[in-house]
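Think of the structure tokens as a kind of shorthand, similar to the way a musician reads notation: each symbol stands for something richer, in this case the local conformation of the backbone. In the example below we present two proteins back to back. Begin with the first one, reading the sequence and then the tokens, and try to describe in your own words what changes along the chain.
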Amino acid sequence: MRFDDHRVVITAAGRDFGRTLAIHFADLGAEVFLSARTLAGAERVRDEIRGRGHERVHAFACDLTDPSSIREFATGVARHTDRVDVLINNGSRYLSGPDLLSASDADVVDTLASGGTGTVLTVKNFLPLLLNSPKPDIVTMISACGTPGHHRSDAHDAFYAAKTAQTGFTEILSKRLRPRGVRVISLYPPDFTNPDPLSEDWDKTPRGPKDPLTAQSLVDCILFAVSQPRDCFIKSFHFEQV
């Protein structure tokens, strides 16, 4: 499975699962446009990937709570390419604490803005580039917290609200963009392990039926979905929670 002819945008790729995705897409030949809240964070991952021999990787700052920052990210990508084939909405602030009163108003606003408003505005600003692609896919990392009735996480209520907003947005987006050939793919994982993809732990992490979900399996799901023929619209991935 190669992605040499793909141009992939990944938000919040300065660490954790976003970094994992950026490294794997680059290893498979894609041209990668990665963002992080700070330019230094994005450049650090860019340099890691270039150190692996992949030159087609670009770093940008993007604060998903700031509409102007999102617009600048999309404008910056448009200076390098006339199309985007895959947009991965990976960014969303996590807020812990099952007590509604435990978070400040500022934390609540930041959480809702990054997950809800940030996702909507990222898609809005990148949609023209996606529509220039013959194979456009929008992938959103939501969470089991975005599924109706879920209550097993210790995440704050505001995080649940942000993830529910992403669910509602991607549901309607899938229906409205399908006639234009854009596939909208959502993932709803519970907590999962995310070993460093450049460490020995990546290949040694247990992946049996009694083990928690791994980043490796999530990467495999995304690669599988975006590599399918264009008549195959995989709308979502839901996972059993151990």
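Once you have a description of the first chain, move to the second and do the same.
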Amino acid sequence: MTETKSPADREEAPAGDDDPKPGADVSFPYDRMTVEQFRKRFPRARWSDARKAWFVPGRTAPRRIGRWLAELEAEADAHADAKGRDAFAFDPIDSPYLQLGKAGFRIRTPYSKTVVDELREVPFSRWDGDLRLWHVPFRSYEDLRRRWPDIEAAARRNEPEERRRRAEERKGTEQEMRSKLRSAERKRHRYPLPGDDLPPLGRPVAISYGIVIFTYITGELADPDIVADVYPGVTEDHVWGYWRAPTLEELVRTWPAKTPPVQGAEWWLPTIEELRPARRAARSREARRREKAPVI
């Protein structure tokens, strides 16, 4: 439903009137019950074929229409919540990670990036930093139900016992050695860049690590014999660039690229699909930093 400008702001007057009258237009998808509610609430309203909208006369019309639309939206939310509650009762999610609350579902899992990404895609979901859990209203049950297999699988993979078991299995293996090398290399905040195609300094760009900002390019050549296990595609023409994580403000100011990166690119301007999760991660980092900051 959308509210439009008053006829007083238009050159066109309502049919049958010589001069524009104060009032406001409102349009919404046709529904018999909604129209009946509207006519009962606004008995002086008249339909305009020219504007394909209802004209409500009166100087207070915009405010009265706004209240009615808000009430209608609240009724729709209540109906959607009731529908979601019924769907849960008929086909419930049985999981130790989900509890039933008064206004919806409370979800608490071990930390997992997959869980966070999935729950962020559920409409109206929100993170409660005090209780350390997610709230999802009943109206979003169908979306939650569709994503739940991936959420639960990721949560189980990140249970402390399961992570310890996998760590024990990796001990002494080549996989563990490669993982340690990658972790140690990433902590150095450096990255090999093609010498003939260097990224701009001070601007967010995307690499295999995610979105970073390069602050300094040394000119020092990368040695493929030493770092080939971490960077398989590196050559003798690559030089080291040092990077840092971008701030939320820097990511918000970044315009997304209109085209995806070319195949085989070693750095590229981030797309909106890459910027959105990066902005969410930066927002979470800054929130955690504020929570840990000492109170003066």
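Compare your description with these statements about the second chain. The longest strand covers residues 210-221.
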